[in-house]
Amino acid sequence: MNTASMQLAAASGLMSLVLFIVALGVLALLAGGYWLTSREKYRESPRPRPEEQPKMPEDGPVRELRENRESAEIPQIPKGERPLTPYELTNMDTKPSASKDRPRWSRGSSGSFGGGGLGAH
To answer: Do 120 and 108 meet the contact criterion of CB atoms below 8 Å apart?
Structure first.
């Protein structure tokens, strides 16, 4: 054997050793992660038993209520007076709308600012 092939064989053997050590490190990390997860899961409270599960209301399932809502009117400020700050406004409650028509966006509009639609043309 010449020296070039011996050097190549030595480098190949070293590379195999490094890859084996890296594989053992990855395996140790995976085993440690599994061990930590199982320890954490052991500390959790147990799952509820069947009799502890939520029960359906006696009058049946809860139904969805569909209605249009309108926001309360913002108070008008008389001319010459200072505007209200957000802290002076109350929680702007909503009330049921008299109209039963659902609001629709204009044709060609995405329905929201910056929503990516083409907009009205």
So the answer is: yes
Q: What is the pLDDT of residues 44-101, one digit of tens each?
A: 888 889 899 888 888 888 888 778 888 777 778 888 888 888 787 766 677 788 877 7
Q: Which residue has the tokens 């399932």?
A: 61
Q: How many angstroms separate the CA atoms of 27 and 34, rounded?
A: 11
Within 8 A by CB and 6+ apart from 27, the residues are none
Distance, in Å, from the CA atom of 45 to the CA atom of 57, rounded to the nearest integer, reads 26
Q: Which two tokens stand for residue 54?
A: 């939520």
pLDDT > 70? residue 21: yes
Instruction: Pull the structure tokens for residue 17.
Output: 């050793």
Joined together, the tokens standing for residue 29 give: 């990390």
3-state helix, strand, coil in the chain (%, to 5): 35, 5, 60
> What's at 99, amino acid-wise?
S
What φ, ψ does residue 95 adopt, rounded to 5°? Answer: -135, 155
